[in-house]
Amino acid sequence: AQSVTQPDIHITVSEGASLELRCNYSYGATPYLFWYVQSPGQGLQLLLKYFSGDTLVQGIKGFEAEFKRSQSSFNLRKPSVHWSDAAEYFCAVGRENTDKLIFGTGTRLQVFP
Amino acid sequence: GAGVSQSPSNKVTEKGKDVELRCDPISGHTALYWYRQSLGQGLEFLIYFQGNSAPDKSGLPSDRFSAERTGGSVSTLTIQRTQQEDSAVYLCASSLGREAEQFFGPGTRLTVL
After folding, report:
1. Closest-CA residue of chain A to B56
2. φ, ψ for residue A84 (rounded to 5)?
3. Between the CA of residue A5 and those of A21, A88, B93, what are the distances in Å?
């Protein structure tokens, strides 16, 4: 069965520091991969997605993610975190021939000034 | 507004009562999804509507849960004989279809006492 693992429940970084949020997936074929962000009281917003092609994907708000098939990973990165990036981040995989998304349990990011 | 809207934003009910949650998708979006976000859990897929096709109900946790989509637009998620474990945030999303970005609504927070 398909699954998504986000091993870090909570991450704290200082403003200006670099960030990497981990995501590992289990899927038999080429997955569709997504990162969403959920700010307090807000709905989910898509940061970026990978369907095929270049394995380094650029998203909104300065985020990027790299698809590594050999490691079954799709880690999210940002070179310099802003206080407004504090939120919960969800990695998700879409299954072939369907749009249903399977989400990880999320990583809560806290940013200190 | 142009986004996905959900109502009510909050719902408190007593155990055993039925509840209806409403979702208004973005105009023109043919696909509509319901997810559930429980405390400490990721988002759990519930049901998926695509155009006039039969809905994919594979994520519904029990036969107490049902959903309709009338006229290819508004959707209602109904939970009968609510239980305390049904307490969660219920999220609706819509998209233009397969491989298209899902846009999420703000959710309905359901509390079953």
Report:
1. A100
2. -75, -5
3. 11, 15, 22
> Can you give the CATH number for the domain in which A36 is found?
2.60.40.10
How many interface pairs between A and B have CB atoms less than 8 angstroms apart? 61
Using alpha carbons, select from B109, B103, B111 the residue that is nearest to residue B31. B103
What's the pLDDT tens digit per position in A30-61? 788 999 999 887 789 999 999 888 899 999 99
Q: What is the total count of domains within chain A?
A: 1
Instruction: Check if A89 contacts B (Cβ < 8 Å).
Output: no
Which chain A residues are closer than 8 Å to B91 by Cβ? 43-44
Q: State in words which class domain B26-100 has.
A: mainly beta
Q: Where are the beta strands (DSSP E) in A64-104?
A: 64-68, 73-78, 87-94, 101-103
Touching check for A44 and chain B: CB below 8 Å? yes
The structural domains of chain B, with segments of one domain joined by +, span 26-100
Chain B residue with CA closest to A34: the answer is: B101
User: Is A68 part of the contact surface with chain B (CB cutoff 8 Å)?
Assistant: no
Tens digit of pLDDT for each residue in A76-107?
A: 999 999 999 999 999 999 876 566 888 999 99
> What is the domain range of residue A13?
3-112
